[in-house]
Amino acid sequence: MSVSAVDLLVLQKDNTWELEEWIVPLSTALAGTTAEQAIWAPPGGGNTIWQTVSHINYYNERMLSRLKGVEPDARVETNEETFAGGTPDEAVWAEVLAETKRIQLELREAIASLSNEELEAPYANTNESVGREFSRWMLHDAYHAGQIVLIRRQQGSWRS
């Protein structure tokens, strides 16, 4: 049985979003978090869970737009601007989580629909291919899911 590059990217997407095998996926890292937990700042500084999710959503939405052939929304001036904070409002936090899930599922669908030729195409006016850029990008979500787990451990809200 042969495995295509698209199959591997979809597997990476599944592992970084919802399939818990050897890393904690983002959906698991976020499961059961409250708005209060999401705005809690770690001792000594650092981003909150909400800020981290805002950052993930910003960049994943840009990736999704490019896959759909749509010009992404205006780019922020600095990376720090992508870490938007939140409020202790459960309804707003639920909307943020729903948006995260929508983006993740649409990204998976878009990645699964790519052809080998599309994977080899240049990514957004860079010297990288779409496939190489997406392979690296999945690591971004995994990295931040790990940060979220660490924050939850610090606040005592992570599973034991």
UniProtKB/TrEMBL annotation:
- InterPro entries, alphabetized: DinB-like, DinB/YfiT-like
**Ranges of residues in domain DinB-like:** 27-148
Q: Would you tell me the protein name for this molecule?
A: DinB family protein
Supply the source organism for this entry.
Paenibacillus rhizolycopersici
